Amino acid sequence: MPTFEVELSDDTHFQLQRLIDDEFVTEEQAYEELITAGLEAYNVKPMDEGPEEGFSESAEENLFDTDTRGDPADEL
């Protein structure tokens, strides 16, 4: 099983530890379920091709326009 390391702020780590203690049996179960839920929330699909191609294509599908200024052509 792949492993990884991540650095969290003290506040985020504290919140995560409270959630683990309150809602999950083990830390491993919590990490797996929380990461899986996060991936599902972003609609990241499993990759059949290389990691760079599949992730970037899936990530692009999740992008949306956050520009609230409107289209400059509309002002003419």
Helix/strand order? HHH
| Largest pleated sheet | none
How much helical structure, as a percent, in the residues? 40-55%
Helix count equals 3
Q: What does this 3D model show about the protein?
A:
The chain is 53% helix and 0% strand. It starts with 9 loop residues before the first helix and ends in a 15-residue tail after the last helix. It contains three helices and no strands. It has a domain at 10-61. The longest helix is centred in the middle third of the chain and has 15 residues, at 27-41. With 76 residues, it is mostly helical.
Characteristics of this structure?
single chain, 76 residues, mainly alpha, 3 helices, 0% strand, CopG family transcriptional regulator, DUF7120
Topology:
Blueprint: H1 10-23, H2 27-41, H3 51-61
Q: What is the gist of this entry?
A:
This protein is mostly helical and 76 residues long. It contains three helices and no strands.
